[in-house]
Structures are given as structure tokens and as C-alpha cells.
Amino acid sequence: MGTAYDKYAHEPFAVTADLAVLTLRDGALHVLLVERGQEPYKGHWALPGGFVQPDESAETAARRELAEETGLSDVSGLHLEQLRTYSEPDRDPRMRVVTVAFTALLPHPPEPHGGSDAAQARWVPYDTAGPLAFDHDRILADAHDRVGAKLEYTGLATAFCPPEFTLGELQQVYETVWGTALDRPNFRRKVLATAGFVEAVPGAARLTGGRGKPAALYRAGTAATLHPPLLRPTPEGRPA
Amino acid sequence: MGTAYDKYAHEPFAVTADLAVLTLRDGALHVLLVERGQEPYKGHWALPGGFVQPDESAETAARRELAEETGLSDVSGLHLEQLRTYSEPDRDPRMRVVTVAFTALLPHPPEPHGGSDAAQARWVPYDTAGPLAFDHDRILADAHDRVGAKLEYTGLATAFCPPEFTLGELQQVYETVWGTALDRPNFRRKVLATAGFVEAVPGAARLTGGRGKPAALYRAGTAATLHPPLLRPTPEGRPA
DNA sequence: GCTTTAATAGTCAGTACGACTATAAAGAGG
DNA sequence: CCTCTTTATAGTCGTACTGACTATTAAAGC
Fold first, then answer.
1. Which tens digits make up the pLDDT trace of A75-108?
2. Is residue A76 part of a domain?
3. Residues spanned by the domain of A194
4. Which of A183, B119, B222, B234 could serve as B37's disulfide partner, Cβ 3.0–4.6 Å?
5. CATH classification of the domain holding A163
6. Which residues bind near strand C, taking a CB cut-off of 7 Å?
7. Cβ pair B51:A116 closer than 8 A
8. Which residue ranges does the record assign to the Nudix hydrolase domain (chains A, B) (predicted)?
């Protein structure tokens, strides 16, 4: 709104909130998809989402959708972040729909459930997720890019982990999202050297159950950004 | 759009594109503001922007607005980037308006101009820019945060510079946006050590005119991200 | 010419990093 | 119960990067 704000008439738009809900299952990145029950794209898979209601912000609508689609009772602690808005005039064949896309990160994926509607919802490995309805392939790819980038300079990786986790689990998050293997001792050293990234759980609590030496437990730290950042190994045309 | 997409009726929204147009003038960060000519917030300053038209994406509308508001004939090479979308139900007292906010960076600020409408447009120092109409204070602050953060790990700073620039000018960008002084030899060393950030202009071209030793000229490089990044000195609770 | 100003070169010690090697503590299988 | 396998954790070493400096160069302004 500015000068032109008052100049042109405005056309009504429909506004939706779409979600790229990501999680780790069996060491692979998965995304929550729903099967569309109606035209257009009937029978195709799509990102969950829905219309923003008159009394809601897009964020509120996204959190409501997240609760509905995952079937989780408490969705308040989950990481939900606005990704970007997609507004190409022809992105929905029916009418003018602008969608505000969000990225949500889940620690434990709830089992596939019926969903709140007739359409079924399902966890799908990220690599086999396309092609999706509308421009959802692009939204999903953007979400993946964003998450991968934010792992470098924020503590976002802990959003994929339960409240208490081992450094091995944290490393798995990086390896899975980036698709690269990391050296374990070096990863450990960098994480512990970064102030505010993780903090040790006071009692000498240790997670056992698996094989090998039990690992120490950590909690997410309070730092918003990582200093120094945890850069991925040679992302693009990096020298050496 | 997903399951709930077809479940609820949708309410019509108005969609606008608002712009935080930033530039450097006299070593200070400035933002382009317009004075509102009508209610609500008549007489208040606001970010330029306007309704997205039926055949436009938000990006297209933003670029159109940018051309209109700055009066620049060629706005195609300028940096324009989606910031985020603001959709609180009560953010506009008249009706339900969702705005897609953009950040634009200008090298040479064009002089204040009449603007395309009755309202006047003006460059205002960032520090004295508030309070603005609607939620524009928040949008502007978010834009500043985003630009400051992106200076660290992208070559965005060159968007504030003319096609050919000196390292001194580039350093000014960092110092102005971050509000901190940087050591000149160290800045120079880091910039030149970062592959793809800047490239020297072939001919031993040098910019003179000011005082002191003439500086070598550089052009923006091709790297999308900076490796290693150019971190700001002690941004928050950084150890040491 | 001498001073001022800004660009550029170089130094040095502390830190971070990648690539390894080594040790410790658990479970699995005989 | 002993050994192998698995995973966590500790430590080493040489290179690269960083921040804090000092030094030199080349122009403009008295």
C-alpha cells in the first residue's frame, strides 16, 4: 500500500497456506503428502494446505492445517516457518489463488493417518515425491533448499530431533538433508565448539538400546545463529 | 491446497505488493517512503506498494511499483527479492489485505521525484524512518535484518554498488548496513580470497577524483554464495 | 614540498578445519 | 567368557583463515 494503493481497483484473490512438512524416517528425508480427491489434479499427490479463513493469519492457518494433517494433538512446539509466497496468475486453473508456503519440521513422524478429510495422507521419501499437483514440486524444492541452507548458520537441525538427542542423531540430520557424509569426530568438535548450539543434559544421562558405546544426551541450545557456522563441504564451485 | 483445500469456502482477500527500497546516500542507509494521501493513515509515511493486478504475480507487481515509485526507466537489473508475506487479519483497518513484501536494493538513488501519484515520495534515513503506516515498521525492520544477514553469506553487497566499484565502496556497504567499522586491510584480504565475490576490471582502470591513492575497480562476481562467508564481528552472544 | 588521505602490502599469533589415529564401552555370536 | 563389531569419544598434525597490527605507496590540498 502506498501511492498506487489507492489508485487501482483490486481484484479478489483466494489465499491458501500450503505446508512442506519434513521429517526423518529410517535415515531418509520424508515429506507429508496428501492425495487430492477432486479436480483439478484429482488423484495426484500434493502438499497439505487449505484456505486461510477470514479471522486467521496465514501462520495461524498453517498451524491449524499442520495439526489437522498430522493428527498431532500438540503442534505448538514444532518448528513452523514461512517459506515464501507463490502468486503466478495461472498456478491454479480454477481461479486466482495465492499461496503462502510454510516449512514445518517434525522430530518423530506420526504414523500415516486418515487425515481430516476424505483424502489420504502419507509420508513419502523426498527423492520420490514428484511430480506433485500445481507448483508444489517447486515449493517442495524451495523448502529443501532453505532447510539445507539454514542448517549451516542456525540451530535448525535440532528441530528434527526429539527434546534430548545424541550428537550422532544430530549428525544424521545434517547428513540426510545435505546428502553428504560427515566426519564424526570433526562434527562433534565443531558442534561442541559452537556456543549455544547444544547443551549437555545435566545428569550423566546416556541413551542406550542400540549397539556400541552409549552416547551422551544433549538438548537444543538457545543460540539463534551459529558462530562459527557449520558449513557444508564444498557446496558448489568452491576452490578447495 | 490439499485436503482442506476443497473443504472450506474461501473468503476474498485483497493482495498487495509492498517494497522496502534501500540505498546508500552519503554513507547512510536510506529507505524510499511515500506520504499517504488518503485515509487510513493519511499524512503518514509508508512503504511504496500497491495492489497486485489480476494478470500479475506479486513479483511482477513489485517490479512495476518499483519502476513507478523510483521513476527509473530501467529497473530490470536491480536486485528485487521477496521478503515475506504479512497477513494478520487486522493489519489494514479497511478490509482484509494480505501483502507480499519485497526488498529492493539500489546502487545510485534517483533524486526524490513526484511519484506517479499525488503522494510524494522521499528518501529517508533508515534510523529516522518510523513510525510508519500499517505494519510497515515491522516490514522495514525485517528487510534490514534480512539484508544484513545476507551480506554475510552472499554477494548481495554488490547490489548496492554501481557496476564497477572500489573495495572501499564495497566496505562502506557492509559498514553502513551492519553499523560497525571494519578493518580495511582485513576486509580487502577476505573479499579477494573469496572466489567469485568480485573480479578485477581487466584494464588497469582506476577510479580517481577523490583524495588519496586511486583504488582499483572491481565488478560483481558470479558466486551465489560466499565461501568462506564474511561474518560480522560478534553479532550476538558470540564467545570471542 | 610537506601534510593529509586513502589504497594496498605484509606480519604474527591465535583459532578453526580436514584428515587421521587411538581408545572406550556397549551388544552379538560363538 | 572371549572376540568381533559397532558406535562414541579423545587426541594429533599440518594447513588455512582471522583479527590486530605496522608499513608503504600514490594521489589531492595546501
1. 888 999 999 999 999 999 999 999 999 999 999 8
2. yes
3. 154-220
4. B119
5. 1.10.10.10
6. A 183, 185-186, 189-190, 193, 206, 208, 211-214, 228, 230-231, 233; B 166-168, 184-186, 188-189, 210-216, 240
7. no
8. 14-154
